[in-house]
Amino acid sequence: MKKNLLSLLFLFSLVIPISCSDMDDNPVPDSLKINDFIWKGMNLYYLWQADVPDLADNRFNNQSELNTFLTNYNDPFDLFNHLRTDATTDRFSVIFSDYTVLEGVLSGTTLNNGMDYGLRYKSGSSTDIYGWVRYILPGSDAATKNIQRGNVFYAIDGTPLTIDNYRTLLANDTYTINLADYDNGAITPNGQSITLTKSNLSENPIFINTVINQGTHNIGYLMYNGFYASYDTQLNAAFGSLISQNVTDLVLDLRYNSGGSINSATKLASMITGQFTGQLFAKQQWNAKAQSYYENNNPNSLLNKFIGGLNSLNLNKVYVLTTKGTASASELVINCLKPYIDVIQIGDVTVGKNVGSITLYDSPTFVSKTDINPNHKYAMQPIVLKIVDKYGFGDYTSGITPNTLISENLNNLGVLGQVDEPYLNEAINQIIANGKHVQNSELIQRDFTDAKAINPLRTEMYLDRK
Question: Is residue 46 within 8 Å of residue 38, measured between CB atoms?
């Protein structure tokens, strides 16, 4: 098929003016409408389109040939996964059968019991695992129960957790966690249990925002757990509060932040700084077709620039706390701030997600729900771009390595926001010592996954339509 791209209204109000003349004489049967949407959306936007033979522009001569190909896939999920490149390269593209669920997750609303957790292997085992509570969401079912940061659970509904069953057990709307005592890696059931029930819950990502006074330093501490555009106003207000308290330093805690909106990340970077308004923060790199069009017609649409008019600290240094759960838009902030200010990273190596996505609907424009196909609710969130700093660097697929490498030790977790909490304490000590590493930190044990990573959408970095 001589693939002419459909006219699409892009996120930046940019239209790719192309017709579909080769397809007009060959209708798409109703039974193939979903598959047709998947193929055309992926052919147009997918970052690795050139690496997938069945997405090639010349793969089909006409719609009839495409229709014949699409009949081989009864399940839209099978077609979508077939059209992805290898799983090592593309770890993040997803498709949902109900776009309302997808939209909720991207805005911070999920079916959630309020217990955010990490999962780790039991000592000496490659199959048996256990969970530990990282934090509890206010207003959730867990917030009404006797459960707190540091609690360890070894089973769900009496079934011990393993790498084969944890997804199924933790997916239930209601489940009972069976608690255990933790002692230097030893997991001992203690007979206690707590039943938790999920509900539609919106997470305010501004979990802690406070100022810690240490001598001549007024240290702002912000634990920010997700880049959700609907909370940008609250984020700006949080920085206004920090400014009013004359902060001299900032500790940005992204250890449980798995990502979100690129636009929100750009705003956060602008609030940390403020002296670079209008300068280039990050650049987007799309597949060859989209990249060529934007470079020739609206190159500024590929640029994310520091934003003015926000509450900004005008800092030249920021301390960022990370774990293996720190991903996508969080990594964007770290990587793209480095050309401008000192970014002192404390914690563990990050996930390594340097690519972003957009939401595609079965509509004439793909990116808008106007005139959307009313007969289904499928929507895709494919990877469509790589994001790099002002110099073009964005090669951190193995994660971003911290300046000071430490992990969260379940023997000494501490209370989030308290000066003796190990991560925060390390940052405070380095601030007071003018950057000198003062603790004998070591890597104890890492989570192999967590509550957010289990749902691939919660680690997305995406462009929204704002």
Answer: no
Our measurement of the distance from residue 25's CA atom to the centroid of its chain's CA atoms, rounded to an integer in Å, reads 42
The predicted structure's pLDDT at residue 194: 98
Q: Where are the beta strands (DSSP E) in 142-197?
A: 152-156, 159-160, 174-183, 186-197
pLDDT tens digits for range 423-432: 999 999 999 9
Between CA 334 and CA 356 the distance in angstroms is 15
Task: Quote the CA–CA distance of 237 and 231 in Å, as a whole number.
Answer: 10
Rg (CA), the chain: 23
The closest alpha carbon to 116, from 170, 183, 155, 163, belongs to 170
DSSP reduced 3-state for 266: helix
Q: Which amino acid is at 364?
A: P
Q: How many whole angstroms separate alpha carbon 162 and alpha carbon 160?
A: 7
Distance of CA 294 to CAs 225, 302, 337, 358, 451, Å? Answer: 32, 7, 25, 16, 37
Residue (of 261, 389, 394, 259) closest to 327 by Cα position = 259
Residue 39 phi/psi, 5-degree rounding, is: -65, -45
95 contacts 380 by C-beta, under 8 angstroms: yes
Mind listing the pLDDT tens digit for each residue in 88-99?
999 899 999 999
Cα separation, 90 vs 145, in Å, equals 39
Nearest to 227 by CA among 249, 206, 253: 206
Place of tokens 């690129």: 262
For residue 397, the tally of other CB atoms under 10 A from its CB is 14
Cα–Cα distance between 239 and 231 in angstroms, integer? 13
For residue 290, what pLDDT is reported?
93
* Angle formed at CA 58 by CA 54 and CA 62, multiple of 5 degrees: 95
pLDDT digits (tens, 9 = 90+) for 105-121: 888 888 999 999 999 99
Would the pLDDT of 8 be above 90?
Answer: no
Our measurement of the distance from residue 257's CA atom to the centroid of its chain's CA atoms, rounded to an integer in Å, reads 7
What does DSSP say about strands 280-286 and 383-388: parallel, antiparallel, or unpaired? antiparallel
